């Protein structure tokens, strides 16, 4: 197979692992390597990745700011569904992988590469997400997953390989890191080492984006989020781009300790894992979106969405963003958002985000119908009698049968 590979596009962070992969690919496959580094809002300077790739003699180096595309085309569509995996997780890592994989495939087409490569390990979900995306976008492209091929099975072996091949090793990489971090504009994910035992609370030094709720400001902050067709478009009346809006919500939520989640989840590959997730802006968006939907969605729409959401969340978590069933569900979800427009007021206070007011020009809420005073719209209380009688008919039949059977 090695002889079939002439050029590979590598998802390259500039860190130790992907630098080792870069060298290993050239050595193992005797191929040209193209590097791709995506700015998804992880908060790191990306130019060092360029300099490191240049040091390896890489000619084609792609470093791209994908923050707007990430939020507009991936995060926002997901949040229209109020997507939560296993009741809690807002899928911050899961939703980033299809975008990275999409660009890997596109760059492969642009540069004439016949393979892509990623640094995901053989134990995690990301390998599945990268490769299923590649399958869906180009069934002919090859995928190289070094962690499933090489014999570098430990941190010691990786460091030895780096030293033998003159790959620079940062001082903080020589010791064992207390935990690993994946970050983007939607969240940070901290896993491994000090977090592996779910019986032990996470250390105070692990959170990176959120203030300890107990140390958050003692005064609540109220913000107004404007919505158009299911997507947030403004904060306190100021129109913002998708990435700018999420950035601002992250700042507000992080200040008030919102969006921390200590979770044990079920990975697609069959094991449980524990991680600390911080999704301050996403947590606010979820609360606010449900707030505006409560006014603008019919009961049938809202309940059907809630029934379908776990399936939609599972598809994203398992790597099926590019699949016919996810696209079918997305069409249904997007149709439901036609009138999800208006403004929501959210109170931020010591780890919580709570809707305190909402309004919409397309509201289905009728003061005349719900008021306890004499309303302008006729609602005959006697109509409820027949409604209850018909709904109770089967229950009476069921109860009578049970009484007869028991003697």
CATH class of the largest domain: Alpha Beta
Largest sheet entry: 5 strands, parallel
**Beta-strand share of residues:** 15-25%
Order of helices and strands: EHEHEHHEHEHHEEEEEHEEHHHEEHH
CATH architecture of the largest domain: 3-Layer(aba) Sandwich
With strands numbered from the N-terminus, the spatial order across the biggest sheet is 3-2-1-4-5
Task: State the end-to-end distance.
Answer: 76 Å
Helix-strand blueprint:
Elements: E1 7-11, H1 16-29, E2 32-39, H2 47-55, E3 61-65, H3 67-79, H4 97-111, E4 115-117, H5 126-137, E5 142-144, H6 155-164, H7 171-174, E6 180-183, E7 188-191, E8 221-228, E9 231-235, E10 238-239, H8 242-255, E11 260-266, E12 272-278, H9 280-296, H10 299-317, H11 324-336, E13 342-349, E14 352-359, H12 367-370, H13 383-406
Parallel strand pairs: 1-2, 1-4, 2-3, 4-5
Antiparallel strand pairs: 6-7, 7-12, 8-9, 8-13, 9-10, 11-12, 13-14
Helix pairs in contact: 3-8, 4-5, 8-9, 10-11
Structure description:
By secondary structure, the protein is an alpha/beta fold. It has two domains: 2-75 and 92-176, HUPs (Rossmann fold, 3-Layer(aba) Sandwich); 181-297 and 340-359, Argininosuccinate synthetase, chain A, domain 2, CATH 3.90.1260. The chain has helices spanning 16-29, 47-55, 67-79, 97-111, 126-137, 155-164, 171-174, 242-255, 280-296, 299-317, 324-336, 367-370, 383-406, and strands at 7-11, 32-39, 61-65, 115-117, 142-144, 180-183, 188-191, 221-228, 231-235, 238-239, 260-266, 272-278, 342-349, 352-359. A five-stranded parallel sheet has the order 3-2-1-4-5, with helices on both faces. Strands 10-9-8-13-14 form a five-stranded antiparallel sheet, covered by helices on one side. Strands 6-7-12-11 form a four-stranded antiparallel sheet, with no helix packed on it. The longest helix has 24 residues, at 383-406. The chain is elongated.
């Amino acid at each position: 197979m090695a002889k079939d590979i002439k050029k590979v596009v590598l998802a390259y962070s500039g860190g130790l692992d992907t630098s080792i992969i870069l060298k290993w690919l050239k050595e193992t496959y005797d191929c040209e390597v193209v590097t791709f580094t995506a700015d998804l809002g992880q908060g790191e300077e990306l130019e060092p990745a360029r300099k490191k790739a240049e040091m390896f003699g890489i000619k084609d180096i792609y470093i791209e700011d994908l923050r707007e595309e990430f939020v507009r085309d991936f995060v926002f569509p997901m949040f229209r569904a109020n997507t939560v995996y296993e009741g809690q997780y807002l899928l911050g890592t899961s939703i980033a992988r299809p975008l990275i994989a999409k660009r890997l495939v596109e760059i492969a087409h642009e540069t004439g590469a016949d393979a892509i490569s990623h640094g995901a390990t053989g134990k995690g979900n990301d390998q599945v997400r990268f490769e299923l995306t590649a399958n869906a976008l180009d069934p002919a492209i090859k995928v190289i997953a070094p962690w499933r091929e090489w014999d570098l099975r430990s941190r010691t072996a990786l460091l030895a390989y780096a030293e033998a091949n003159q790959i620079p090793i940062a001082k903080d990489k020589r010791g064992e890191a207390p935990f690993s971090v994946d970050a983007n504009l939607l969240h940070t994910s901290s896993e491994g080492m000090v977090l592996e035992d779910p019986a032990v609370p996470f250390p105070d030094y692990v959170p990176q984006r959120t203030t300890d709720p107990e140390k958050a400001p003692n005064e609540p902050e109220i913000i107004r989020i404007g919505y158009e067709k299911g997507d947030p478009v403004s904060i306190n009346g100021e129109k913002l781009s998708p990435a700018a809006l999420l950035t601002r919500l992250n700042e507000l939520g992080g200040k008030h300790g919102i969006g921390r989640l200590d979770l044990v989840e079920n990975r697609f590959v069959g094991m449980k894992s524990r991680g600390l997730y911080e999704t301050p802006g996403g947590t606010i968006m979820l609360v606010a979106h449900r707030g505006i939907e409560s006014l603008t969605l019919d009961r049938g729409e809202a309940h059907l969405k809630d029934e379908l959401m776990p399936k939609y969340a599972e598809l994203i978590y398992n790597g099926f963003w590019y699949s016919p069933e996810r696209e079918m569900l997305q069409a249904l979800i997007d149709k439901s958002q036609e009138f999800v427009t208006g403004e929501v007021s959210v109170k931020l206070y010591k780890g919580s985000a709570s809707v305190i007011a909402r309004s919409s020009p397309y509201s289905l809420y009728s003061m005349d119908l719900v008021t306890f005073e004499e309303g302008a719209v006729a609602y005959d209380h006697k109509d409820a009698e027949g409604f209850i009688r018909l709904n109770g008919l089967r229950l009476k039949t069921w109860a009578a049968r049970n009484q007869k059977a028991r003697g």
